[in-house]
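quick q for whoever's on today - can somebody do inverse folding on this one?? i tried earlier but teh output was garbage lol. tokens:
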């Protein structure tokens, strides 16, 4: 009887484990929007964007470009563990902006225009907000903009 009980118990444990593993993970993938101004004025942003490249978000008027170098996407992610969604998204937004700044410098431009979010390839255009994907463990921001030379 003892051997039969052990086999039954083992079978139940294996079945329960298989069932638990078959359940979809309780993953969170929320699309959130936050103010661009908050992220640009966050303490972490100070000194990271050096002013050598000007930024114009979709809907903002930019001077006519003297030269266009192309449209580029910056897709950044960060560990969101133990951070608020806003804090994680602002950090990731800043990383994406730094990448656009660096790309503009590499291409020879002095501005990035028509910057907009492209989370999971869905465009979100706003002069005042950006979109962020926030999950339980990760947060991500993808920004797309055109590198140009302005007068």
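ok took a stab at it. sequence:
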């Amino acid at each position: 009887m003892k051997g039969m009980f052990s086999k039954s118990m083992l079978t139940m444990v294996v079945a329960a484990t298989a069932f638990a593993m078959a359940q979809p993970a309780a993953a969170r993938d929320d699309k959130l929007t936050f103010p661009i101004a908050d992220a640009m004025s966050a303490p972490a942003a100070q000194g990271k964007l050096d002013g050598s490249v000007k930024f114009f978000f979709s809907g903002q008027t930019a001077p006519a470009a003297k030269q266009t170098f192309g449209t580029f996407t910056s897709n950044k992610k960060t560990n969101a563990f133990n951070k608020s969604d806003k804090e994680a998204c602002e950090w990731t937004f800043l990383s994406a902006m730094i990448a656009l700044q660096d790309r503009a410098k590499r291409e020879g431009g002095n501005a990035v225009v028509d910057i907009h979010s492209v989370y999971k390839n869905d465009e979100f255009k706003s002069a005042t907000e950006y979109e962020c994907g926030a999950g339980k463990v990760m947060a991500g921001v993808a920004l797309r903009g055109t590198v140009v030379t302005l007068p």
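fwiw The beta strands are 29-35, 54-57, 67-79, 111-117, 129-135, 138-149. also Residues 85-107 form the longest helix (23 residues). so keep that in mind when u check it
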